[in-house]
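Example record

One chain of 378 residues, shown exactly as stored in the release files.
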Amino acid sequence: MTTVTPVPLARLTTLRTGGTPERMIDAATTAELVDALRDVWATGDEWLVLGGGSNLFVGDEPFEGTVVRVLTTGIERMASPVPGRVRLTVQAGHDWDDLVAFAVAEGLGGIEAMSGIPGTVGAAPVQNIGAYGQEIVQTLSEVELLDESTGEVSTVPAAELGLGFRTSVLKHHYGSVPARRAVILSVTLDLPDIGQGARRIAGDQLRTALRLGPDDEATLAWVRERILETRRSKGMVLDADDPDTYSAGSFFQNAVVSASFARTLPEACPRWPVHPDLDPVLVIPLANFDGYVPAPTTVESDVKVSAGWLIEHAGVRKGFKLPRSRAGLSTKHALALTNRGHATAAELAELARFIQGRVQSEFGLILQPEPVLVNVEL
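Predicted structure tokens for this chain:
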């Protein structure tokens, strides 16, 4: 590990905000990362692990603690215990989109719809990244973790990470602390070996985004290129020449609400069921069975609704800026709060609060921020 001269986090985050930390360490190997974190934890100082900086909203005040930059890279291909699949173990600091490009070139599916998502592989399971119906929970096998409480390295199955919609037990949600304070060292994915040929595209969201019919076929490479084109058109692929990409991606989560609440929203609001409706299993002890089997009941699935639609239909349009503010909505995507040029974290927070207030007033729903907030309040 290398202790380096601290630089403002505004230079290392895609929202371009953040003060200078007291101390900064670069870790280029797993061993260096483990040593750096154990040293920091032993001091009891505040700490922040920084990957690509694409899912952070950092305040303007100096960070009173240590920032550890995860610079580890590497992909190892292995056989999977499941026929027709391949396992990839990837170091935490590896660029996510580079991994997707590698997988597609190898004919491995399951993550191609997440092309162009900025950030590092180690950050991906923390918020269960996803796009167009694909989420990392669908292909994640396990992660290698370093726990703060013990300082020990362990391999943890994906099933123990509490992966849900943009969440996990590792995520620092706004207003709360993670259920498990740990840092991911590596990630193992289990991917279907599809090959380079065309095949039917599964998933309504993905087919809709690609403008494909239910039985249309496409190659992994074609899907990746179309997804990248779509994300570029929304300013969601990082570009130093495009201020619309000076963002943390989607600043607000698409809201997951009950089916009954979803019915109070306008029919035009895009929505998707979160879980399929499944008939519950009814168990009747044999000693209590009297020959009567009650009719099965079904529980309505929750519904994911479009935060971008809610924002625009609350009167906050693409490109919106508060007076004299250097923060504004992207001109291409209503979910992206952007730094239009030397905006402070306070200006971005003011815009976020304004949007939350408008959506709550219009639709009775409080949008939740998706990035991790550090030294800043909404």
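Notes: The mean pLDDT is 93.
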